[in-house]
Write a structure and sequence with these properties.
The chain is mainly alpha-helical. It contains one helix and two strands; from the N terminus they run αββ. It has one domain. It is rod-shaped.
C-alpha cells in the first residue's frame, strides 16, 4: 500500500523541526552564557584573592619596617645612657 503525505503535513513537520532546532540552539547559547558568567566570576574571585594577598604582604612588610625602626631608636636611646671614658663605661641615670 502506498501512502502519500500532503505538502501541508510536510510543512508542519518542517516548522516543528525548525522550532526544535531553535530551542536547542537557544539552550546551547544560554549554557554558554552561564559558563561564561561562571568563568568571569571565578576570575574576579581569583583577582580579589590576589589583591588581598598583595595588600597583606604590603601590610606585613610595613609592620616589619616599623618594628625595625622602633628597635633601632630604642637601641640609640639606650646607647645614649652610656659614656665611654677610655675603657670604662659610665651609666648615666
Amino acid at each position: 500500500m502506498i501512502t502519500t503525505v500532503s505538502s501541508m503535513c510536510l510543512g508542519y513537520m518542517y516548522i516543528g523541526k525548525r522550532r526544535e532546532e531553535k530551542r536547542r540552539e537557544e539552550k546551547r547559547r544560554e549554557e554558554k552564557r552561564r559558563e561564561e558568567k561562571r568563568r568571569e566570576e571565578k576570575r574576579r574571585e581569583e583577582e580579589k584573592r590576589r589583591e588581598e594577598k598583595r595588600r597583606e604582604k604590603k601590610r606585613r612588610e610595613k609592620k616589619r619596617k616599623e618594628k625595625k625602626r622602633r628597635e633601632k631608636r630604642r637601641r640609640e636611646k639606650r646607647s645614649q645612657n652610656f659614656v665611654w671614658v677610655h675603657d670604662l663605661c659610665l651609666v648615666i641615670h
